[in-house]
Amino acid sequence: MNNLFGYVPGNSVIHRLNPVTKIFLTIAVCVAAFISDNLAYLAGLLAVDLLIGFAAGVPGKTLTIFRGLLKIALFLFALQILMIRRGTPVFWIITDEGLLTAVRVVLRLVIVCMPLALVLAVTRISDLTNSFVQVLHVPYQYAFTLSTAIRFIPQFLEEMNGIMEAQTARGVAFDKARGLKKFSMILPLCAPLLISSVRRTDQTAAAAELRGFRLRTRQSAYKRYPFTALDLAAAVFSAALIAGALLI
Amino acid sequence: MIRLENVSFSYRGQGPSVQNVSFHAEKGEFIAILGANGAGKTTTVRLIDGLIKPDSGKVLIHGADTAESSVSERARRVGFLFQNPDRQICRNTVREEILFGLRSVRGDEKEEALQARTDEILKDFSFTGDEEPFSLSRGQRQRVALASILAVEPEILILDEPTTGLDYLECCHIMDRIRRMNEEQQVTVVMVCHDMEVVLDYAKRALVMAGGRLLADGGVREIFRDAALMEAASILPPQMIGLSLRLGKGFEQCDSTDTIVQTVLDARRGGAKHE
Questions:
Q1: Is residue A147 domain-shared with residue A109, that is, in the same domain?
Q2: How far, in Å, CA of A216 to CA of A147, rounded?
Q3: Count of CB atoms within 10 A of residue B148's CB?
Q4: What's the domain count of chain A?
Q5: CB contact, 8 Å: B80 with chain A?
């Protein structure tokens, strides 16, 4: 889990794209998923997600993310078919409209979440921050906040695992509880997690200040992020995804 | 009480962290596991508590295989003090914190008994019970974590670098309390520690690890006097043992300032008589 959001070094086509292009491609996939109601097109977008993951040379991570999302998707699917009462009943309280909406919601969830996680697998956080500052002219403070938030995700997971391990060693039955019971046992542990997170944030802020955080401008980074023909092709592909969603 | 039989373990995607380690510990022993970073010390104590299961070999606690029972069930008999107390503390007051641990493993007992035990341990550790754990100093938080573990009265106590980040006085408070429990209640203590002075002062037996292997197992003083072993394990022996080794013949049994000074004085007196 800790490595799920981590960067995987590589030299694939996806790795070589400008970080900004990767973000635009991700946004294009998300926008297309929300524009289109066509199930076949949504299934195609899901295939695009998987292909991007495979092209990036991270098939294992792609499938892990996919499997993880499927578990949430199944829960969401069940919730949708039980809540939506419009349409013709098919079985018990389940209607045809409920089924269609549930499939759409589930497909959209997976389509939207997968590229967001994959971007982090194929882009260094520092490249993401620097390209935002240089290319999109985002103030460094905001870009830093975004990148720090992303960087903290695996650290929070590690901290949470450490807390759960320590509590298990004290006799809290995390190793035996499942589902909702386990969830209810985790809730009280949010206090130590929150306190350690605030402490860590304070320390990071102090370290950043000591290293001249406020002196940094667009010109501070020596690495440049030019757009290449590959980025142009990705931009065209992104536009085609949105156009396809509008037309089909 | 604790028995490891040819235990090996590797973290996923990494080389072996512990290789073919075997040893056993009896009731009332005070054992220190020594070694450089990455030697496999923490992995070994996590294996003992069953937080991780061995890839091969067996870890037996009171004759029961840790792979066949859960860590939470074992918590009644095995206490684990982690390096970072903030991972253990999860309640708003010290009293609640101690009660939380007690209720987790002694939930079948009457509430009055648990409250009485909490009062006892609060008094023992000089806490009022109303203190907010997260507002206390690092050393005090470590004492809260230790108090909540000792409240349960475990038979085995595992300590993973318990004195890291503590000043000398805080370190003494923690270690003296552990020694008292070891001596008075015959609690078996297994401690990972980087401070060799603490090891010399408190532990009686030492296991030396390097590269995931157990290099030596013996009395603390004998282990520290083995210069070749210390070099192989990248350990610097305690200052006074290092000095006694350099002083050579006549100082072999010295392990403190007092004993070295006494030996020098004895030698001078002997020399004066001779003259």
A1: no
A2: 15
A3: 30
A4: 2
A5: yes
> Does CATH number 3.40.228.10 belong to domain B2-236?
no
Same domain, A175 and A241: no
3-state helix, strand, coil in chain B (%, to 5): 45, 20, 35
Residue type present at position A98: G
Residue B238 C-alpha, separation from nearest chain A C-alpha, in angstroms: 31
Local structure of A217: helix, strand or coil:
coil
**Boundaries of domain holding A212:** 136-220
Locate CATH 3.40.50.300 in chain B: 2-236
Search chain B and give the residue with CA nearest A192: B90
- Are B204 and B30 contacting, i.e. CB atoms less than 8 angstroms apart? yes
A182 with A239, same domain: the answer is no
- A136 to A10, A24, A147, A217: CA distances (angstroms): 25, 12, 15, 13
- The pTM of this model reads 0.77
Q: Which residues contact A177 (CB under 8 A, 6 or more apart)?
A: A185
From A60's Cα to the closest Cα of chain B, the distance in A is 14
Contacts of B134 in chain A (CB under 8 A): 192, 195
What tokens were used for B66?
């840790």
Nearest to B58 by CA among B23, B2, B6: B6
For B115-162, write each residue's pLDDT tens digit. 999 999 999 998 999 999 988 988 899 999 999 999 999 999 999 998
Instruction: Please answer yes or no on whether A169 and B104 come within 8 Å at the CB atom.
Output: no
Instruction: Select the residue from B42, B43, B68, B71 to test the A interface by mutation, using most A Cβ atoms within 10 A.
Output: B71
Cross-chain residue pair B82–A192, CB shorter than 8 Å = no
Q: Do A169 and B92 touch (CB under 8 A)?
A: no
Q: Which residue does chain B place closest to A165, by CA atoms? A: B51
Tell me which long-range contacts B111-120 makes (C-beta under 8 A, separation of at least 24). Answer: B117/B151, B118/B151
Tokens 């949105």 sit at which residue?
A242
In a domain, A5, yes or no: no
Domain contains A1: no
Query: What residue of B is the nearest CA neighbor of A176?
Result: B70
Q: What tokens were used for B238?
A: 């305690």
Q: What is the pLDDT of residues B25-38, one digit of tens each?
A: 999 999 999 999 99
With contact defined as beta carbons under 8 Å apart, do B68 and B50 qualify?
Answer: no
d(CA A29, CA A163): 37
CB contact under 8 A, B149 and A174: no
Nearest residue to B148 via CA among A168, A170, A187: A170
Mean pLDDT, consecutive 10-residue stretches, chain A (248 aa), reads 72 92 94 92 94 91 90 90 83 85 92 90 89 88 85 84 88 77 76 82 88 80 86 94 90
* Option in A173, A175, A192 nearest B90 (CB): A192
